[in-house]
Design a protein that fits this description.
The structure is a homodimer. Chain A is mostly helical. Chain A contains 9 helices and 3 strands; from the N terminus they run αβααββαααααα. Chain A binds a DNA duplex through helix 3.
DNA sequence: TTTACTTGCATTGTATACAAAGATACTATT
DNA sequence: AATAGTATCTTTGTATACAATGCAAGTAAA
């Protein structure tokens, strides 16, 4: 099961087109501000305009596009302030998820998370600069903790709404060489807190981890703007 | 500007039907588990199936209905666990909003909030048992604090997604005679914390306020189940 | 009597066609 | 030359029609 397919069964054409467009946006093939012309999408993905429109509406629910009546849909474009807002909420909700996970995850699940990090360590040692897989590993780590919160609504808000936008920025910004190693160290401290069932510490560490992530993102965005 | 119309301009038929259905669900005219038959809705609200389907999709984005491919849409039905999950998230996000509001709201806005509570006090003294307007007042209070957080994403998540579901339960459960007075006292303490710019206390008080709200809701639901 | 299969019906998903709103380009006037 | 107004054209919103899926009722066999 890949994170790409979004763990959702696809039964209708609208679902399929939605998944395709979602990937295209997250990967940066469709960039912020780009227009989604319905007729053009029909020619690209097949089908008729009806399922295409449904797909666009689903993307709107995921906060990936903004629709304006009679003017069409465009890929969302965030100001720096809005990006900070998103990360502020993400900090709160993932901090919460981590706190709850410390109280509710099974010992086995925590052990499995520790094993996952060990695997990441060897991956980073071998594939220096293969940032794509490292990013996927990072997402997997966060995903498991969110699942560990055992709060279904929290899971939907984080995985179903916030994370699509977060992924959109993560995939597109380059990662510095030393960041994966630093992130791994932070992940390991979080797992230690989980294993110790120290909910307060686990929450604090997760919040800081995400703060660092935002700082990096802001720096990279400024560099790209400058170049 | 009424809370009912959801402060969103309505330019298309789909938007209009969505707003109508939203009200119907929040008011309990459509009850959890009820099916939304597209043809029936066409006969009730006019238009054709296309805008009706769009309206239903918008309701899905608000977490008010659940659609299953080839099986139709039904009003969401929450287990007690899921209701607790929702309030757990609400506690976190409104606590956050209150903390941020203590740091970011203008002095004028805080004063206006205090004035609003004074008005509520006289309303409660006069309209004993007129719980509808008291509930509207409560929503207005929470709404203003959320706006005060100055975090647009947080506002969208709370007002655009969580609150529709919360309202759905609030309108339908009766309120005890003494609860409005107790709630007002809690609101007043929160405003005092905001005025003192005590973010930590403001967050704590808001979290407790929502916890009380959940306890009341659980008690009422159990009573209704028993009867 | 129960169960499994088949057939018909109701409902949703999709395609095509038409209406209306917005954008653009051109012309006329100041 | 600049601007306002108008006409055309593109694009979205909506209606109607068809296809396909799922559900239910009814029948036949065990």
């Amino acid at each position: 099961m890949s994170l790409e397919t979004d763990f959702e069964a696809v039964h209708t054409l609208a679902d399929k087109v939605c998944a395709e467009l979602c990937m295209a946006i997250e990967r940066g093939e469709l960039r912020p501000g780009d227009k989604l012309n319905e007729q053009a999408l029909v020619e690209r993905y097949g089908g008729s305009r009806i399922p295409i429109r449904e797909a666009i509406q689903k993307l709107e629910a995921r906060h990936l596009v903004k629709r304006i009546p009679h003017a069409g849909a465009r890929v969302v474009k965030h100001t720096l302030k809005e990006l900070r807002d998103i990360y502020e909420v993400r900090q709160e909700l993932e901090g919460m998820a981590c706190r709850l996970a410390a109280q509710r995850m099974s010992d086995n699940a925590i052990q499995a998370l520790a094993d996952l990090l060990a695997a990441h360590a060897t991956t980073i040692a071998h594939d220096k600069g293969q940032s794509y897989y490292q990013k996927a590993g990072d997402l997997d780590f966060h995903y498991r903790i969110i699942q560990g919160s055992d709060n279904h609504r929290l899971q939907r808000m984080l995985c179903g709404e916030l994370y699509h936008v977060v992924r959109m920025y993560r995939y597109q910004t380059s990662t510095s060489k030393q960041r994966p190693l630093q992130a791994l160290a932070e992940h390991q401290r979080i797992v230690e807190a989980l294993a110790a069932r120290d909910a307060e510490l686990a929450e604090l560490l997760m919040r800081r981890h995400i703060q660092v992530s935002l700082n990096n993102l802001e720096r990279l965005m400024k560099e790209e703007l400058a170049s």
